[in-house]
Amino acid sequence: MRRSTLFVMLVLMMLLVSCGGQDEKKDWLGQDFETITEAAKSTEVRWYMFGGWSHVNTWVDTWVKDQLLSRYGIRLVRVPMDATIFINKLLNEKAAGKSTGSIDLVWINGENFKNAKESGLLTGPFTSLLPNFNALIDPRSIAFDFGYPVKGYEAPWGRAQFVFEYDTVKVDPAPRTFEELKTWIIAHPGRFTYPQPPDFTGSAFVRQVFYTVTGGAYQYMDGENQALFDKKSPELWKWLNDIKPYLWQQGRVYPKDSTQLDTLFARGEVDMSMSYHPPHAQTKILEGSYPNTVRTFVLQDGSLANTHFLAIPFNAPNVPGAMVVANFLMSVEAQLSKYRPSHWGDFPVLDMNRIAPQQAAAFAAVDLGPATLSAAFLAQYAVPEIPSGYLEMIENGWNEKVLREK
Amino acid sequence: MKTQTLFLHLSPLLIPYVSLFCAGVVLAAVQSVGLWSPVPLPSGLGAAYTRLWSSPWFYEMFGFSLYVAFVSALLATGGGTLLACGIWGMPALLRRMSVIYKATLILPHIAIGFIVLVFCSQTGVLASLARLVGMITLPVQFPNILYGGNGFGLILAYTYKEIPFAILMVLGLLAGFDRRLFDCARMLGASRVRIFFRILVPSIAPAMHSAFIILFLYAFGAFDIPYLLGESKPAMLSIEVYNLYFKRDLTNRPLALAMLMLMFCFSVLFIMIYSRVVSSLTARERKL
Amino acid sequence: MKHAVLFGFLLLLFVFPLFVLVGYALDPAWRYPQLFPDHIDFRSLSFLVREAGPLSRHMGGALLYSLSAVVTTLVMCYVPARILARVPFSGRNLLEGFLLAPALVPPMTFAMGLHFMFIKIGLADTLPGVILVVSMYSYPYMLRALIAGFQATGDDYVLCAENLGAGRWTRLIRIEFPMLVPSIMAGGSVVFLVAFSEYFLVFLIGGGAVPSFTGYLFPLLSSSDRSLGSALTLVFVFVPLMLFVMMEWFVGRAYRRMGLDV
Question: Is the pTM of this model over 0.80?
Fold first, then answer.
């Protein structure tokens, strides 16, 4: 008899635990920034972000963390986790009714942002509360993320543009168009490959081919059109399958993500790599992984450009802390620190017309290193990202039409 | 002992076993059918299973996983047994020093995968060695172990990880083996090969069988090594399960869990059949 | 002679790779076709020093849940192992078979099944949740070791002590438990290693909120920074190695003081 009472008590305790503390969730979105900063003092902020770049990890763990501690007393905890995985985690938590999670801030953009927003996983709109956002950012430049309206649910952090990397010792001159690239690939069998979609970089490469062979990106900017895709995609599959036999491993196997492609390139197994971050090659040179003869190039047909952002999950335990961190990361000091190649080299999101001239000069004076192309140069060839529904269509189609094609 | 006292004594293990392990398996089964899903599902109950039944890629993956697991477990058990017997036959000092074989046991599976990557890639350490001795001049001439499409990289990594475990298990049993039997057989003129097969092997067979089962099932369901070394095609089942489970929308959950359940049932069946076969074989031997 | 060859082979197979890792850790620019690293660059090592804070947090976290798993599995398996080793009852072999199953079947199965439930009852993202799941996966090793230990030692000494008037607690603490220490150490070592090396279960249930060294190591191993990956792998090996050496030394000393020869 005593045993069963004990058992019942245990079960009751477990139920109590699950019914958890439903404490009053203060509406931070209605407060002013001073109150928010006060509330954020001496708290812990948990930031979940992609962890495969050790230089970025180091910069966040040292400079950013120290600055936040000394300015606001905020203890920053960086947790490495891929975007698809933390979105999956948030989806789980939302379905389980977990109103207080463990993620305060996330690094996100594109498809992941759209999925998160549509599934109600984000807190917002919050960017209009942030002083640096209102003062330093050109709202038109970040109104859309992959063709999807941002509406204040994510704060801009940096800009990226797709570039190719090559070793000048092995490839000279670099191809200037996709046609020239195709010719090069066929002339050098086994020396080129791209990461397997749905890897972010691999997907971007396939998207760029898509724009080029089907007549440009702008025809797709008007929402997702399956019929249009079905009409135009055969050209894409043809191009990819044409080069397939000349790829590394005859296109049977693809590096499963961009870091694996970097390794192949660094070890000399392929002659070109690619990255969605222009400063990536220079960083690798500084790290010692790439030889210092590596340079970057873009194709004149166009290179994808986008912005990456920060967002706050629906069940963030420390919303004011997250907002203060997001605001700080948009400040001139933080953006300048991020721009330095020894830290990261990621392009700033600030509107240069809105910051003081000496500050703008400081940005212009940063030496990006020989391997990184300047923002002005890159801007000439920038093309925007198309609505993310096309990404799914391309990724699924790639699996069927390219990978499984004999 | 009374049944009640028996259960009481077994409860520190039985309670967590039932409420965590059994509950977990049951929940996986339930979710695989499509019930208790966190999000509304587009297809009906059991849709995941019908889909798997008619998907050729599933059978390909299943077969590939079986092949990788079987070959690596076989190589590890065989190689481990030979090495263990060799170590057992060493003079005492060398035998104590041979504890170095445990060095790689401490490494996590991902680090083993990393080591195989470092050594066996076409620009790895072995390739540099091959170039030095003049066997190759270009990286592409080095055998394509890791990405050759036949799972050699995976098999190598699993075998490398598993051999110390096999050595451990066999040595454990050899420790209790009476050396005098060995000496006696030698004196009677038996050759080393004969002694190995007719005397040593039957005694250490239980350890070999246990090792084989454990290593086979481990390689079949493990995740860490294929994540690092696996190829796009053919892929291991556990990686596909991981991809499906962690996708952006949760509607693929039942599919992932259905694959897991099938892997689970296979593992259980394998244990049952293997034990039965082994015990009937040894029973026959004893009768002789 | 052939013993030396075999020993050399073991060295080559199991120890040499670690030296190669040291090579990479010290020379990030070592690449094909160089056979040996040719210059030293302390970049990776200085990274380790700079990142000592997060590194020790993750290492500490991993040690915490691994050691807790050892204690948990010991508590879970002690009494049941005694029963399974010494008390014959019908269905014992079958039960033992079932109880050993978690180490054989893919751990993803029960972990993914439990995952959603854990979120609901609040055990996900917590240390107790991770300890529970890891213990469920690794207890069979402790169970087997304890069963073997109980079978090997027999209950003679305990009966003798009982006859001499020793109470239950005394019998347990001063006689039974010390005799089982070798088995506990063997089982505990395996449980510790399994828990310490585990990536997926900790990652799934811990959700990034529970610091783990494998979670820290994983993204770096698949990156192109081979030097850092090697350096961190060596750190990973070093800690349990030190732990085992210390354990052997302490326990060996305790046994010698007690007069037993281990």
Answer: yes
